[in-house]
Amino acid sequence: MKRKTIVNEIGYEGIGLHKGQQIKIKLKPYDGGNIVFKRMDMEDGKNEIILDISNTFDLTRGTNLQNEHGAQIYTIEHFLSSLYACGITDLMVEIDGNELPIGDGSAKVFLEIFEKTQIKELDKEIDPLVIEKPIFLRKDDKAIIALPNDDYRITYAIKFEHTYLKSQLSDFVVTYDTYRKEIGSARTFGFDFEVEYLKKNNLALGGSLENAIVIKNDGVLNPEGLRYEDEFVRHKMLDIIGDLKILNRPIIGHIIAIKAGHALDIEFAKMLNCLSIK
């Protein structure tokens, strides 16, 4: 498999979910062998954050990276998910804040950006991460399993003790076409009773019905309703695709996730990374 980057530089501006600030990003072709986030609002030489599992931190409500100089970048999982779907392994991301724009709460805006700029193969090759034997991680009632398979397949189950959202199960083979049609447009979600707590703790300051699904006792607050009947579990699939992109390698195997979240996803990615190091 060939490494890939974008053809032309392209920009985008949007609100950040947690700080509520307008964020500008500029995506540039790159052949340096990784995804690099460059904080343009910080001092040169200390402002580049490389996509590496050792740089992850604070995984409570998103996937975040930092470097040894203290530069940080938050809420990268939707962006990474779109990168995986597009096969992009090399990219320079110039950004003037500390979190990625949230878009509409899915990966849709990033897919549209990459369609505009197009993608090209580089001369360098990349080895896929092939699941050769069963791997299992469990924490309380959360679990992730990886099994050998001929392609990249994800089965995901969620369960909540809620009057409206109880349990959902979804299963897809992850290809670009399937991702674009079935997964990439699934939006992030939260419960109405969480909103006040988040705002008080300076979280989700940029959140609105335009970039998240808000669940109430008997449905959702969003006037347009859901994009898919099982949009909640599809978004969880979007998240785990992005979280495992932290390894920046194509995956060949069957991932089965049960109530997993960012912290468990990254811990599982560390297990996969250890297996792949020869």
Concise account of the structure shown:
This protein has 278 residues and is of the alpha+beta class. The chain has six helices and 19 strands. The strands form five sheets. Strands 11, 12, 13, 14, 15 and 19 form a six-stranded mixed β-sheet that branches. Strands 2-3-9-4-5 form a five-stranded mixed β-sheet. A three-stranded antiparallel β-sheet has the order 6-7-8, with no helix packed on it.
List keywords for this structure.
Ribosomal Protein S5, domain 2; lpxc deacetylase, domain 1; globular; 278 residues; alpha+beta; 6 helices; 23% helix
How would you characterize this protein structure?
The protein is α+β, with helices and mostly antiparallel strands and 278 residues long. It folds into two domains: 124 residues, lpxc deacetylase, domain 1 (Ribosomal Protein S5, domain 2, 2-Layer Sandwich), CATH 3.30.230; 148 residues, 2-Layer Sandwich (lpxc deacetylase, domain 1), CATH 3.30.1700. The protein has six helices and 19 strands. The strands form five sheets. Strands 11, 12, 13, 14, 15 and 19 form a six-stranded mixed β-sheet that branches. The chain has a five-stranded mixed β-sheet with strand order 2-3-9-4-5. Helix 1 packs across helix 2 and helix 5 runs parallel beside helix 6. It is globular.
